[in-house]
Amino acid sequence: VDVSQNFFEETKGAIYHANDHFASSPPPDCDPATTDSYVHIFKHVYLHRNKANAKDCIDMCFGLALKFDWGTHTRLALMALTYMMDKMGGKQIRDLVVQPKFEKKATIDEDARKAGYRFIREHGLQANNVNQFMEWSSPHSTTIHAEDKIAKTLEYWPFTLKSMTGWFFDGILVHMLGSISQHGITWIGKTRTGKSLGSKTVAFCQSKYEIEQADRDALSPAIVTAKHLDFFKSEPASKFKPAIFDDDMLQKMDASFLKAFLNPSEEDATVWARYSSAYFEQGAGRQACNNPYDQECDKDMYRKMQASGIWEIKHENFVKLIQQSFASIDETEDMDAILARTHMIIITDFGIYWRLASSSKNDVKFVSWQQDEPKDLLAPAEKPISAYKKNPHRHSPPESFQQDMIWSLEVLHFFTAYSRGKPSRGRSQFVDEACFRHTTTTTTNRTPHTR
Q1: Which helix (H) or strand (E) covers residue 201, if one does?
Q2: For the ranges 8-17, 112-121, 362-371, which has the lowest average pLDDT?
Q3: Beta strands at 342-347 and 184-189: parallel, antiparallel or unpaired
Q4: Global pTM?
Q5: What pLDDT score does 423 carry?
Q6: Residue 289 needs a FRET pair 20 to 30 A away by CA distance; which of 10, 228, 325, 361 works?
């Protein structure tokens, strides 16, 4: 048989009379005087997962139509069909698609894998005890077409602790700064009142403080923010990079996540996330921001405090106030465990409720908004700095930023040493030592409602 291009085209087009190789003897009932040429044609049509009426299939056939019952053992049935065709004899051309039963998935090129390992050995870091490898690998493995799907790292923040309003910083925040490495801070309440700003400011100052304490001059102050737990898997928090769960769905998180995330002092804070787990380093600062709170409860408590002149609320009323942000917590013991791990700052229409992390069920203190002042934790004089968001890449910190940052670091150093029972040693770098001594003295004596 001359297997040429014409041979295949004639066969494909069923032009068998042009190919003498397939000539067959006429059937017995044929006129002996006929001059027609005959060929035997066997066509197998496989209707793969296509439903068609059997009558229509038979009408399309010329000659004898056969239907093969494959049964449940298709492999044996296919062997039987092949055997039948072999027994038919003659010259046959079979156009069959041969493919394996299970296709092997494409794997990474072994040469590319080896090249990647070689690049890491030659250019990568030798240690990963403080998350150095993640910091190094992210810019090397990410391209403009494949952006990281991890928590967002912020490396620029123009605010310091001095940017807060004085009454909030002196009366509330200073009580929490000394233990931010042992307890988280949860900010709940009204939007556009400074929750995110306050959390990021504290976190940036903490990052700068930890970097200086560890003499890691090569690192830049930074924080990681995310709105879902999954994004903390590839960008875990560290002592030098605090984590903020900002504008998240706190009310949908279960107790195990909240207890692990809001407890920086825990030795093994590993929580479940889809496909893997998120890990949080011990001592890494963690904060959470959320909006829902019980506004009706807030109104009722404020009326009672006005009538009594006692600016505190009962513990059970405080739990009711924040319950909307912890809607997934069903057990009382789980709620008590969360409150023992995190400081609470609740910003409402009437003022701020604040509570230090504790297992006790003491009354919760309240500070009302000052009259004729905006309901915002950011000092009015610092408002123009917020314009940096219009063009953050070209924004420069205010002239007093370095001086204010030194002041903020000294504040953290003082309260951290005080909370650990260690005296603050060395010459102070405060811009105004007398002013700071006055601030720390009046802080402990001032009652929340007198200011």
Answers
A1: helix 195-213
A2: 8-17
A3: parallel
A4: 0.64
A5: 45
A6: 361
